[in-house]
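User: Okay, second chain of the day. Same drill as before: sequence in, structure tokens out.
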Amino acid sequence: QVQLVESGGGLVQAGGSLRLSCAASGRTFNTYAMGWFRQAPGKEREFVAAISWSGRSTYYADSVKGRFTISRDNAKNTVYLQMNSLKPEDTAVYYCAAGRTPATMRIAYDYWGQGTQVTVSS
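Assistant: Same drill. Structure tokens below.
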């Protein structure tokens, strides 16, 4: 069992930056791939980024490539999402998730956090 708690969301102007964190409980964090997803009002939850258990492999949605960076610190049981050059269309609730592979599909993830709101003003 893995419990995930996101933090770091907030209100930021377009062009600004935020760093999201996802703290995980449990001793097996370093065996899980981690992903970030987001859901805007009235839209489906969509893939943002994923990272392998070792951190050596990362994957990004085209919409965030070059602006967002996913990373992890297995010693701290934490995964991060650094978000730069934010746009109003990045506004959403951001969720972290843990699964066996760094997939782009929601179904691949077994555990989810409660989400953190990111709002980008124009």
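The two ends are 40 Å apart (CA to CA).

User: Thanks, on to the next one.
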